[in-house]
Amino acid sequence: MATSPDIARELAERLSKAKTAKTRNKIIRAYKKTTGKSATALYRLASDHGWENGRRQRHDAGLIKSLGDKQIKELEKIIHKGRNKVGKYTVPTTVAVDLAESNELLNPGQVSPSTVNRILRQRKTDRKSAEAPTPHITMQSLYPNHVHLFDVTHCAQYHFDGRTLKTVNVETEYYKNNPQLVKKMKKHLYRYVLTDHTTGHLYVDYFWAAGETTADAVQFLLDAWFEKNDKHLPFHGVPEILIQDRGSALNSKIVMNLMKNLDVEVITHVPGNPRAKGSVENAMQVWEKQFESRLIFQRPKNLEEIRDWCRDYLVRFNATKTHSRTGMTRTEGWLKIRSDQLRCLPPREICQRLAHSAPKDCMVYGNMTVRYLSKEYSVRHIPGVLPRDKVPVQYDPFSYPSIIVTFEDEKYQIDPIQKTEFGFPVDAPVIGQEFKSHKETVTQKGLKEAAAVDLRDLIALGNHRERLGNITYMHRDGDDIELPEKHYQAPGIPKAKAALRIAEILGRAITREENRTISERYGSSVPEDVIKALAEEFQAGHLATIDAEGKEVSS
């Protein structure tokens, strides 16, 4: 209890006037009775308000002359380096001082361990200060089912031996070098807990398994979120946010897929920061004390019995235990949820399908519909969607058989098209009575506008050389490729035609020898550029065979 400043000043004044220690002690005894404070506290209070005891103060009072700042920091490093992962200090101050002296960081006998501890307390770097909770900010949730917290704990002290629940001595049997027992206990009892952050409402269940499994996690969450056939346990509904451990079974792809399809944001808290989900951590401790402590006196015969007892006690716990923050019982607080805040699950078979299905890309047909699981849905109202587009489609878990179509980062809830008994859409126009057409698409509008533009004056050809500007290229010299002569022969003409041409040049018919020469040299095709040379050759050879009288000499 704080002492008023007036009383403190009065005490300081009376002590200042006292001449002897006996008088001062008498004054202190009187104030001890009226204030309830100790003598030391009263003397300190009087000193704070101007009283001086008259003693000479040491010239170095309040100052640490024995150690330099660098030496103090080295000692801090040695001591805090010995802090293990669970926060326990393994290097005492005596060892730290000894290490500093042996490494010539301190002179032998320069400082005592108690003085080092006092220095660290003054600097707020002692063990106690380091173990104090780090500053944090209290986070709030807005309403029931806004945020749920999930956790799983291995109940190491229990296991079923085939007849009943057996208690295991954790210290001597489980952890103390007894691998045979660990090997024998292939399955263990796991406690699954879900807490509503706003109201503190609990849902707890037990599973007998070899470890945390995806199947158990899905079953637990669905059991917690489904509406129960129990009027005393009204808690149900899907949260908007679920906070969990990094190593939780909820990290599996199946569970994460289910959470995504249920539109639940999953937040995984940072390891080593249990305060991030302290609500459920505290719930674990409360449940262990409130419920599991009773198992000492009454043992369940099997898993189903402990689960029945668990649900039975859940009803009483949530209905009667007042939450310290809300001042209400858990059930009373949760019942304040509004209908627009309560998201109810679809049938269980749909939830199981949601856990194994991802959004499916469905093609938009010409009548502006998509087909999903044998049902037809109209997407004509979604801006920008065109026939042959593919859009992601998935169940709407809270309005089955509606679907969610995602297009350009926007989500649209669509109900299935209602059909007549003959399979036609109920709103389809009747032949011969009415006519309806789709609203023009962006593509149709663009094509219509393009067709209306007059482009007769548009220059498309004949100006490309001019568009290059004044560009010239440097001439490049190269070597001619030499190929066999036959590759350069001029195109040939039939031998008969070539013979007629040669005969026209000679002015006579060619002889059999000349005809044979043509065949031997060129075959059936004679190059056109050799016809004149052949004629000249045949003319010279023919003149050589005529005698002086002008008659041909037979060879």
Number of helices: 20
CATH topology of the largest domain: Nucleotidyltransferase, domain 5
Terminal CA distance: 158 Å
How much helix, percentage-wise, in residues?
25-40%
- The helix-and-strand class reads alpha+beta
Provide the residue-averaged pLDDT: 79
Number of domains: 5
Outline, from the CA principal axes?
A: elongated
Largest sheet, in brief, is:
5 strands, mixed
Low-confidence stretches: 169-177, 546-550
Rg (CA only)? 51 Å
CATH class group of the largest domain = Alpha Beta
Strand content: 5-15%
Strand order of the largest sheet: 5-4-1-6-7
Find the count of extended strands (DSSP E, 2+ residues): 15
CATH architecture of the largest domain: 2-Layer Sandwich
What does this structure look like?
- The chain has 5 domains: 5-48; 69-131, no CATH class; 147-341, Ribonuclease H-like superfamily/Ribonuclease H (Nucleotidyltransferase, domain 5, 2-Layer Sandwich); 359-452, no CATH class; 491-543, Recoverin, domain 1.
- The chain has helices spanning 5-17, 21-35, 39-48, 69-81, 93-102, 113-122, 127-131, 170-174, 179-184, 214-225, 253-261, 278-290, 303-320, 330-334, 348-356, 442-451, 464-467, 495-506, 512-522, 531-543; strands at residues 147-154, 158-160, 165-167, 188-196, 202-209, 241-244, 265-268, 360-363, 369-372, 375-378, 390-395, 403-407, 410-414, 492-494, 525-527.
- The chain has 555 residues and is of the alpha+beta class.
- The chain starts with a helix and ends in a 12-residue tail after the last helix.
- Helices cover 37% and strands 13% of the residues.
- The chain has 20 helices and 15 strands.
- Helix 1 crosses helix 3 and helix 5 crosses helix 6.
- The model is unreliable at 169-177 and 546-550 (pLDDT under 50).
